[in-house]
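Late entry, written up from scratch paper. The run itself happened at the end of the previous shift, but nothing got recorded in the book at the time, so transcribing now.
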Amino acid sequence: RNLTITGGVNWEKTKMQQPSAANPTYFQTQTIASRGVDFAPRLGIAYRYDDRTVVRLGFGWFFDPYPGDLVDALRLGNGLDQYNLSSVPYQGNAPVFPRSVPSVAAIPAGLQNIWFGVSKFRNPYNQQINLAIERRVTRDTDITLNLIDSRGYKLWDAQDTNLISPFFGETYTIDNAAGQAVGTYSSQLWTTSNVNSGGISSTTSLHTADSNHEHVYQVANDGSAWYYGAAVQIRKQMGRDLSAQIG
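Output as recorded:
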C-alpha cells in the first residue's frame, strides 16, 4: 500500500516520403533513412515513506519527431527537384546585380547546394530522470524538492563536406576599450581566392573539393547535450477553493 510502480514501453516508426530522384554525383540523396527500433522505456515509482513524506522517481526516453523543414531540405536537396543557389560577390561566376540566373540550364557552376542525410540517419532522443521528495510541513502546506537530469543523444548537426583544408592562418590583435593591444587571437581561414606570401592575389574559387557545387551539407547525428537542475516548490492551501504556489 506504500509503493506504486508503473512501467511501459513506447515504440515509434516514422514512414518517410522518399525523394523522387537521386543526384548521380551524391548517391546519398536517393533515400532518407528511418530507424525501426525506436523503443522508449518509461518507469515511474512512488513510495510513501511516512504519513508526511512521499518520494517519486521517474525515468523515460523521448524521441524527437522529424521537423518539416528538415524533411523538406533532405527531399528537395538533391539538386534536381528544387535548385538552391548561394554565392558571394567576389566569385568569378557569381551573377552581378541586377542580373539573375535566367534559367535552370544557365546556372553557373559552383553555385548550387546539396543536402543529404547519412545512411544511419535517425531521430534524436532525450533521456530524463526526475527525483522528487514531497514533505507536508503543516496541515495546509507542503514543500517539494525536484532534481532533474536531462540528456540529449544523437542530436542533428550538419557539416559542409565540400570544404577542403584551410588555406592559411591569421592572427588578430585584441584591443581594449581604450584602443590598447591586450592580446591576440589566431584562426584558420577558408577563402575563395588564391593566396601567396603577399596575401590574396586573385579571385579563383578554390575552397571547394567539388567545383560544380557550392555547399554539400551532410546531416548526421553527432550532437549531444546535458542539463542538470533542481527546483523547490512550496504549496499552501489558502482556502477551500484557493491555493498558492511558489517555486
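The first strand starts at residue 3 and ends at 12.
(Scratch paper discarded after transcription.)
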